[in-house]
Amino acid sequence: MKTKTQQLVLTAIITAMALASYTIEAAIPPLTPVYGIKLGIANIFTIFTLYALGTPQAAAVLLLRNVLGNILKGQILTHIYSLAGGLLSL
Q1: What pTM value is reported for the model?
Q2: Where are the beta strands (DSSP E) in the chain?
Q3: Which of 78, 67, 11 shows the shortest CA–CA distance to 38?
Q4: Ramachandran area for residue 54 (φ above 0: left; ψ -120 to 50: alpha; else beta)
Q5: Alpha-carbon distance 53 to 35, whole Å?
Q6: How far apart are CA 2 and CA 76, in angstroms?
Q7: Number of neighbouring beta carbons within 10 Å of residue 27
Q8: pLDDT more than 90, % of the chain
Q9: Helix 4-27 and helix 55-73: axis angle, to 10°?
Q10: Contact, 49 vs 58, CB < 8 A?
Q11: CB 8 within 8 A of CB 36
Q12: 21 with 28: CB under 8 angstroms?
């Protein structure tokens, strides 16, 4: 059983890694001819968090990654679409 502090630190580290992969993936041009389709590498961190820590921490990683990533990219409107798809998958 992990303590609350360990869970918080692990969630923060995973969120940082997911945000880094999210911004790197946003810088890569799309590999498909359809605009807006990405590989979704940052979702691997959310799935890992869901498996390792549970649903509340996975939702926190998903929300923080999307909010901070869209702020960094300057695309606030895409935040709504990414949250809708991500929260439906949990």
Answers
A1: 0.75
A2: none
A3: 78
A4: left
A5: 34
A6: 35
A7: 7
A8: 30
A9: 40
A10: yes
A11: no
A12: no
**CA separation (Å) from 61 to 1, 3, 33, 72, 77?**
20, 18, 29, 16, 19
Tokens of residue 75, six digits: 């695309």
CA pair distance 27, 10, nearest whole angstrom: 26
Both structure tokens of 28 = 């890569």
Q: Are 15 and 61 in contact (CB under 8 A)?
A: yes
For 32-65, what is each residue's pLDDT tens digit? 777 767 778 888 999 999 999 889 999 999 888 8
Token pair for 48: 């890992």
> DSSP letters along 31-49, please?
SSSSTT----TTHHHHHHH
Whether residue 39 contacts residue 25, with contact meaning beta carbons closer than 8 Å, is answered with yes
Give the list of residues 6+ apart from residue 66 with CB closer than 8 angstroms, or none.
Answer: 79, 82, 83, 86
- 18, containing H or E segment: helix 4-27
